[in-house]
Amino acid sequence: MKSSMKQLVLSALCFCACTLYAQAQTTLPQAPAGFDVENSSISKGKVEPFKYMSQTVGVERTAMVYTPAGFSADKKYPVLYLLHGIGGDEMEWLNGGQAQVVLDNLYAEKKIEPMIVVIPNGRAMKDDRATGNTMAGDKVAAFATFEKDLLNDLIPAIEKKYPVIKERESRAIAGLSMGGGQSLNFGLGNLDTFAWVGGFSSAPNTKAPEQLLPDPAKAKKMLKLLWISCGDKDGLISFSQRTHEYMVKNEVPDMYQVIPGGFHDFKVWKDNLYHFSQLLFKPASK
Ligand code: FER
């Protein structure tokens, strides 16, 4: 091979390797068996309801709050805001996803940073129960209204009651389906508030890429982690795919996970929580 040719091949290889590194579409291994099974021999975190007055909705609302084993009011913690889907409420991640069990197990193995996990009700309207037609227009609209409730009501109330680090690099937002769309919309739209963003199987409420992220250079600078994932058997995968493609095109590093054989269900979302939570609030994610 001529040396100029060699150089071309070499630089092409190098380009591929660098691109792969920056835009990692890796396939993470499935969470190990037992990761979501309660273990009686470890210490557990605590889950409690937290009530706050929402000026946005005009009523008192409830979020669930997980504090880790060994929680102490003398320490300060980062916070993950973890959002549910269209048929869920503030109990969905606990009942359907055993989030508290997944977190307890990870924490016992020292695989996650000590963190507080806030699980709100993302349907910001007076009757926020997941009853009747959960696809009704007013209920879907309430998922968008939640941005104001979160930023103006819930976060300030959490930061008043709990010992948390009140900095963007200590706040994460992630969710499943409608909650995934909310996390991408609110997280990328409020980079002054959140540095860690995760969309699991994000729904059609995900803003179109140019609207979602009009200033990619800013996001590139400010994001600690952008996680986009979806099962390859999920009918909503096009929303994750188009978001990921925009990030690639605009050189915003993301972790894009397409889960082989994955549907729109808690098998995928628990697996996401298992992997995503281990990256949070650690220095080496970017
Ligand atoms: C839709 C399909 C799915 C939609 C929302 C969803 C608002 C949400 C699914 C979920 O949260 O699991 O057309 O429109």
Describe the structure.
It is a single chain. Helix 3 packs parallel to helix 9. Mean pLDDT is 93; it is low at 8-22. The chain is 38% helix and 17% strand. Strand 5 (171-176), helix 5 (178-189) and strand 6 form a beta-alpha-beta unit. The protein has an 8-stranded mixed sheet with strand order 1-2-4-3-5-6-7-8, sandwiched between helices. By secondary structure, it is of the alpha/beta class. It has one domain: Rossmann fold (3-Layer(aba) Sandwich). 3-(4-hydroxy-3-methoxyphenyl)-2-propenoic acid (FER) binds next to loops. 3-(4-hydroxy-3-methoxyphenyl)-2-propenoic acid (FER) binds at residues 85-86, 140, 177-178, 203-205.
Summarize it.
By secondary structure, the chain is α/β, with parallel strands linked by helices. The chain has helices spanning 3-22, 92-95, 99-108, 137-161, 178-189, 209-212, 216-222, 237-249, 266-279; strands at 46-54, 59-67, 79-83, 116-119, 171-176, 196-200, 225-231, 255-259.
Write the layout of secondary structure elements.
Layout: H1 3-22, E1 46-54, E2 59-67, E3 79-83, H2 92-95, H3 99-108, E4 116-119, H4 137-161, E5 171-176, H5 178-189, E6 196-200, H6 209-212, H7 216-222, E7 225-231, H8 237-249, E8 255-259, H9 266-279
Parallel strand pairs: 3-4, 3-5, 5-6, 6-7, 7-8
Antiparallel strand pairs: 1-2, 2-4
Helix pairs in contact: 3-9, 4-5
The structure holds 3-(4-hydroxy-3-methoxyphenyl)-2-propenoic acid (FER).
Distance between the termini: 38 Å
Strand content: 15-25%
Q: Strand order of the main beta sheet, please?
A: 1-2-4-3-5-6-7-8
- The CATH architecture designation is 3-Layer(aba) Sandwich
Pairing-aware structural class of the strands and helices? alpha/beta
Bound molecules: 3-(4-hydroxy-3-methoxyphenyl)-2-propenoic acid
**Overall morphology:** globular
| Topology, number of strands | 8
Helical content class: 25-40%
pLDDT under 50 segments (min length 5)?
A: 8-22
